[in-house]
Design brief:
Layout (H helix, E strand, L loop, with lengths): L39 E5 L9 H15 L3 E8 L9 E12 L2 E7 L3 H12 L3 E5 L6 H8 L4 E5 L7 H5 L1 H9 L3 E4 L2 H8 L6 E3 L25 E5 L8 H11 L7 E5 L5 H8 L5 E5 L5 H6 L3 E4 L8 H8 L4 E4 L2 H4 L8 E4 L4 H12 L2 H15 L4 H20 L4
Helix pairs in contact: 1-14, 2-3, 7-12, 10-13
Length: 408
C-alpha cells in the first residue's frame, strides 16, 4: 500500500537563479559524502535494453558503477519481446511501444502489475528505490506508491506542453511530493516540469563512459576512409531531424565536396526514411548499433544532430568523448552540454540553410574540426560515470540520514 510518511528532502547544494540546485562541479566544489555501507538499490524504469536511448544508458551505467562500489542493484523494468534474461534485471509485465510527446515511448501492460510490484519490492528489501521518469506510467508510478523505503526520482525529459499534466496536475503533484529527492538531468528538464509542478530540484547530469567512447575506436566496415563522413546516430522519429539532414546532405555534397552520410539507428519509421533516401549511394543505413557506437563517432568527420527537442545531449557527449566535432540544433537541452564555437557549431532549430552552412564550414576546415574535437574530448571527461555516480550516491546518503533521524 502507499507509504505516506517517507521523508522528503532537498539536498544541500548551491541554487541556480531558476530555483534548481546547481550541479556539483566535476572539477571541484564541495566533497560528496557517499554511503558508508553497502546498499540494496532498486532502479525502476520503463526503458531498458534492447530499447535504445538515454534513460537505458543512464540506468545501465549507474548500476554498473554502483555495483563496482559494493552496492546491490536490481533493475525493475518490463519485458520487451526478444530481450534475453539478464542478471539482476526483474521483469514486470510486457513493454508496449506508444507514440507520446512527439516521440516513441514505452508503457507496461499486463494484469496484476501493482501486486507484482509490491511483491518484488518487498522481496528485495531495498534501502532505496530510484525511479526514472517518475511521473510516467506505469512502473515508476506503481513503485512510488508501493515502496516502503525512501524513493528518489530522476527526471529526463524536456517538453513544451503536456495535456496529461494539465488535467492530472493534482494527482501527479501528490506523487512528486512522495519523492525524497527530485533529480533532473538538466536545467531544461526543470523548466519543462516547472510549468506544472513544484519541487526542490537537484540537477545531476547524465554520464558518459569516457573509456568506452574514445577517439581510437576502430573504423566500422560501412564507413568510407577516402571521403569525409557525416554521422547521424539516433532513433528514427521526426523530432530527430533525419529527413532535414538527408535533404541538407544532398545540398552540400557535390563533385568538389565528396562525402558520405552514415545513418545509425532504427525504429518504426525505418522504412519511411529508407524511401526518403531514394537509394542515394552516398547515404548508408547500418541499423541500430549498441557496442559498436564508438567506432562510428571516432571515424566520422562530423556528428550532425539536428534534433528539435531534447532534455540533454547524451549523444553529443558520446561524440565529444570520441573527439568528433558537432553540428547541432541550438535548443535548450543542448545548451546544457555544449557551447557554440567551443566543441560544436550550433544552428537555429529547423533551419536547413544554417545546417548546411555549419556542415560546409566544418567539411572545408580541418583545423576547426580538430580544435572543436579536442576541446570536446577534454570536456567529456567531466561527465565520466564515476563522477556522476558519486553525486547520486551522495543523494542516497543524505536521504537515508534524514530517514534515520529521530522525529522532531
Amino acid at each position: 500500500m502507499p507509504h505516506s510518511n517517507r521523508p522528503k528532502v532537498g539536498v544541500a547544494a548551491p541554487r541556480t537563479a531558476h530555483g534548481a540546485h546547481a550541479p556539483v562541479s566535476p572539477h571541484g566544489g564541495r566533497l560528496e559524502r557517499t554511503p558508508s555501507r553497502s546498499l540494496r538499490i532498486a532502479l525502476v524504469t520503463e526503458y531498458y535494453y534492447p530499447h535504445l536511448g538515454g534513460i537505458c544508458e543512464h540506468v545501465h551505467y549507474f548500476a554498473r558503477e554502483a555495483r563496482a562500489r559494493g552496492h546491490h542493484v536490481d533493475i525493475i523494468t518490463a519485458d520487451i519481446p526478444g530481450a534475453p534474461p539478464q542478471p539482476h534485471v526483474i521483469a514486470i509485465g510486457r513493454s508496449q511501444s506508444v507514440y507520446a510527446n512527439g516521440s516513441q515511448a514505452r508503457i507496461t501492460v499486463g494484469t496484476g502489475l501493482r501486486r507484482r510490484m509490491r511483491q518484488v519490492l518487498a522481496r528485495g528489501r531495498y534501502d532505496i528505490v530510484h525511479v526514472h521518469s517518475p511521473l510516467s506510467p506505469v512502473l515508476p508510478l506503481l513503485a512510488i506508491d508501493e515502496a516502503d523505503c525512501p524513493v528518489v526520482g530522476t527526471f529526463h525529459t524536456y517538453f513544451d506542453r503536456s495535456v496529461g499534466y494539465t488535467l492530472g496536475r493534482r494527482y501527479f503533484q501528490k506523487r512528486l511530493d512522495k519523492l525524497a529527492t527530485a533529480i533532473a538531468v538538466s536545467h531544461s528538464t526543470t523548466v519543462a516540469l516547472g510549468r506544472y509542478f513544484d519541487a526542490d530540484w537537484r540537477i545531476i547530469p547524465n554520464g558518459i563512459d569516457a573509456n568506452f567512447f574514445n577517439p581510437d575506436a576502430p573504423r566500422p566496415a560501412a564507413m568510407r576512409a577516402d571521403v569525409p563522413v557525416i554521422l547521424f546516430l539516433g532513433r528514427f522519429d521526426p523530432r530527430n531531424g533525419l529527413r532535414m539532414l538527408m535533404d541538407t546532405f544532398r545540398r552540400v555534397r557535390g563533385p568538389q565536396r565528396e562525402a558520405q552520410l552514415v545513418v545509425v539507428g532504427g525504429g518504426p519509421l525505418e522504412a519511411h526514411y529508407h524511401r526518403l533516401a531514394k537509394h542515394d549511394p552516398d547515404i548508408t543505413f547500418v541499423g541500430p548499433v549498441l557496442e559498436g557506437r564508438p567506432g562510428y563517432y571516432a571515424n566520422s568527420s562530423i556528428y550532425a544532430c539536428p534534433t528539435t527537442k531534447a532534455s540533454f545531449g547524451i549523444t553529443l557527449l558520446e561524440s565529444m568523448a570520441c573527439a568528433t566535432p558537432i553540428v547541432c540544433s541550438d535548443i535548450l537541452g543542448f545548451r546544457d552540454v555544449v557551447r557554440n564555437e567551443r566543441e560544436a557549431l550550433m544552428v537555429p532549430r529547423g533551419d536547413e540553410r544554417a545546417l548546411a552552412d555549419g556542415l560546409v564550414r566544418l567539411l572545408d576546415d580541418e583545423t576547426l574540426r580538430h580544435r572543436l574535437g579536442a576541446v570536446g574530448r577534454d570536456i567529456a571527461q567531466s561527465y565520466a560515470w564515476p563522477r556522476v555516480t558519486e553525486q547520486v550516491l551522495a543523494v542516497y546518503s543524505d536521504v537515508l540520514d534524514l530517514a534515520a533521524a529521530p522525529a522532531a
